[in-house]
Design a protein that fits this description.
Structural class of chain A: mainly alpha
Number of strands of chain B: 0
Oligomer: heterodimer
Helix content of chain A: over 70%
Number of helices of chain B: 15
Number of helices of chain A: 12
Shape of chain B: globular
Largest sheet of chain A: 2 strands, antiparallel
Largest sheet of chain B: none
Order of helices and strands of chain A: HEEHHHHHHHHHHH
């Protein structure tokens, strides 16, 4: 879509667009280019010179069992975060949609966790499950379950998943609730007259009508769990124990800043760029659908 | 959406109560971590380190919050709150300004390189800062912007989302307005200030809510570039309050800080709920 009526001149628009273009060039394109360039080199231990290795960094990465494990960890983590954040959100939205009065109050309350930063959410959940002072871990201990996410990789994964999904429940709830409110009442009432009970109506009519929203949220939540959960992981587990919660974004940080392995970190950045690209394409595909719906 | 006709599909009687009970249960479970943090911020350290801690607030509210705000652990939390405020407002206002300008240029002008710049901005959609941290850090360090507000703000304000939002909106402004402005001999910037900006008010406000939260909740970027505790933001500063090694963390102060860290974004979201939901839905479209 284009405007028919435009203003003349080319200097003014160039000046108007300049701030964004300059900032994008300096803080986006140059660093991204650097990442691609550096991924082809290995710096010597003193950082004085760089040795060209072609795709060596990538070959090394893809044969590195820790890196491949990190891919699997990221996959498991993002699937779990997506499920744990979407299913309760859908349930709450369906409940809220059945209410004529009071839904607004619940919505106001349920928005809260969205405003809580992932890193702060990490601290809150860490506090509840802390092995020494945590309330939940203490009660679990009383029930005979010895909770220790510092040593147990599965428990660590469970904890970062729940802490990451928590704030997203609010987000998903808002989208599901809006979509449910948009489902035509006449369709539901027609089904009800035909004798379909609530859950039957839900699975045969409502859920299919929600599918554009569901697909959209699936993609957005996967993107979220890939890129925005760094704070949760860093505050709760720092990637441990034994790298069992080291997702890809955390590994870029750990190898680049903590391990100072620039070549490998850059190659990881490039691989992540490709992943982001694919996810964005996917996102646009689903967003298209959503718009047509 | 108003539903004047209470049909057979809404719940009544026992079912209605059950729905309310389930909703309340859901809200309680979701709120529990926040409640527990609040309780922890009102009791003494010994009450926490001898589990189980109480589940009802104690009487140390003022002591703990005073300790957090004015002494903190590494730096007073008041300082971190101020830094976060500068960063969040800087990012929100900065993004809105550069996006308004560039969207105006793209929609209302035909100039050399327009398509190129459009795609250039479009591509930045795909590059979250997490992906290119090492080289971006080097750029910022090269400019001497470590431990500075500009270092906290600039690398995060060039995202394309806001630009696209404004572009979409500008395209819906009737052509007659621009036509009339041109006939009257109004210069483009006059049209921008008198017509475009006032008409975008609601979009600007909705975007401000979203961007404020985005800026306030940043973690990785401030963690990398603020090595000086005086420049820490509150969200990244909480983790720095945990002692290294086996020392016991000062839980009441840490939890008071966590509560303080969530109050500004929660106030923004809850008080501007309508705008927030609108901004959320718009910016994801």
């Amino acid at each position: 879509m284009e405007k028919r009526v435009t203003f003349r001149g080319w200097l003014l628009p160039l000046c108007l667009i300049a701030p964004q273009v300059i900032i994008s060039a300096v803080f986006f394109f140059y660093p991204a280019g650097q990442a691609i360039w550096q991924s082809l080199f290995i710096p010597d231990p003193f950082g004085l010179s760089m040795q060209y290795v072609g795709l060596g960094n990538f070959e090394y990465l893809l044969s590195d069992k820790f890196y491949r494990a990190s891919f699997v960890t990221t996959g498991v983590f993002s699937i779990l975060v997506t499920l744990v954040s979407m299913i309760p959100a859908l349930f709450l939205a369906v409940m809220a949609d059945r209410l004529i009065k009071g839904a607004g109050v619940y919505r106001t309350l349920l928005i809260w966790p969205y405003a809580v930063a992932p890193a702060v959410a990490g601290v809150l959940w860490l506090f509840m499950f802390n092995t020494r002072v945590g309330v939940v871990s203490w009660y679990l201990g009383n029930l005979g379950y010895d909770w220790n996410h510092v040593l147990n990789g599965n428990e660590a994964m469970g904890l970062v998943v729940v802490a990451s999904a928590w704030g997203r429940i609010s987000y998903n709830f808002l989208f599901f609730f809006a979509a449910l409110q948009a489902v035509p009442r006449s369709v539901i009432e027609a089904a009800a007259i035909d004798g379909a009970r609530f859950w039957r109506r839900f699975f045969t009519i409502v859920l299919p009508l929600l599918s554009p929203t569901t697909f959209f949220l699936l993609v957005v939540n996967v993107v979220y769990s890939f890129f925005e959960t760094f704070g949760v992981i860093h505050t709760i587990t720092s990637g441990g124990p034994q790298q069992s919660t080291t997702i890809l974004v955390y590994k870029v940080f750990a190898d680049g800043f903590v391990g100072q392995d620039l070549g490998s970190s850059s190659a990881q950045s490039v691989i992540l760029l490709i992943v982001v690209g694919l996810l964005t394409v996917l996102q646009f595909k689903f967003v298209e659908k959503r718009v047509h719906y | 959406m108003a539903r004047e006709i209470h049909g057979m599909v809404e719940k009544r009687g026992a079912g209605l109560w059950l729905t309310h009970v389930l909703m309340i249960l859901g809200v309680l479970i979701i709120f529990f971590p926040i409640w527990l943090a609040f309780v922890a911020s009102t009791v003494t350290q010994p009450e926490i380190v001898r589990p189980p801690m109480p589940l009802w607030p104690g009487d140390q509210f003022f002591e703990n919050y005073k300790a957090a705000l004015f002494s903190g652990v590494n730096v007073p939390v008041a300082t971190m709150l101020f830094n976060s405020l500068v960063m969040a407002i800087g990012i929100a206002v900065g993004k809105i300004i550069i996006s308004l300008l560039s969207a105006f240029a793209i929609v209302y002008f035909r100039f050399p390189g327009r398509t190129f710049f459009f795609w250039m901005i479009f591509l930045t959609l795909m590059l979250p800062v997490e992906v290119r941290i090492v080289p971006t850090y080097e750029v910022v360090a090269g400019f001497g912007m470590l431990n500075s507000y500009s270092g906290l703000i600039f690398p995060l304000i060039a995202s394309a989302t806001a630009t696209f939002l404004f572009r979409q909106f500008f395209l819906t402004i009737p052509d007659e307005l621009a036509e009339a402005a041109r006939v009257d001999g109004a210069r483009p910037m006059r049209f921008f200030w008198d017509i475009v900006v006032p008409m975008s008010r609601t979009n600007v406000a909705a975007l401000f809510v979203i961007l404020f939260i985005y800026g306030w909740n940043q973690y990785l970027w401030p963690l990398l570039i603020t090595t000086d505790p005086e420049m820490n933001t509150i969200v990244m500063g909480i983790k720095q309050m945990f002692p290294s090694g086996d020392d016991v963390a000062d839980w009441p102060v840490i939890m008071a800080t966590s509560i303080l860290a969530m109050i500004p974004p929660v106030i923004v979201v809850v008080s501007m709920q309508k705008l927030f939901i609108r901004g959320l839905v718009d910016s994801e479209k």
